[in-house]
Amino acid sequence: MCRSIKTLRPPVLPQEATEEDFHAAALQYVRKVSGFRAPAAHNREVFDRAVEEITEATARLLAGLEVRGARSPAG
User: Fold this and answer.
1) Which among 14, 36, 17, 18 is positioned nearest to 27, based on CA atoms?
2) What is this structure's pTM?
3) Which contacts of 47-54 are long-range, i.e. CB under 8 A and separated by 24 or more positions?
4) pLDDT tens, position by position, 11-66
5) Are 10 and 70 contacting, i.e. CB atoms less than 8 angstroms apart?
6) Cα dist from 10 to 13, 17, 65, 72, whole Å
C-alpha cells in the first residue's frame, strides 16, 4: 500500500486539495506500482501519461464524492 499518500478529501484535509496535491498523490502511486522512482528514458512517456491520467481521475473522484455529515467551512 502507498502509505505516503495522504487522504485528500475534507474533513481529513482541512483545506481544499489542489491540483498539486492530486499530482503528488498520482506520482507516488505510479512510483509504487511501477517500482521506479524515476523511469528510464524509454519509459518516461508512459510513466508521465499514467501520472496525468491518475491526477485527472483523482480530481474527478473527489469532485464527485458526497461526504455526509461533514461540516461546512462556515459551520
Assistant:
1) 36
2) 0.79
3) 50/26, 51/23, 51/26, 51/27, 52/26, 54/25, 54/26, 54/29, 54/30
4) 777 678 889 999 999 999 999 999 999 999 999 999 999 999 999 999 999 999 88
5) yes
6) 5, 8, 10, 9
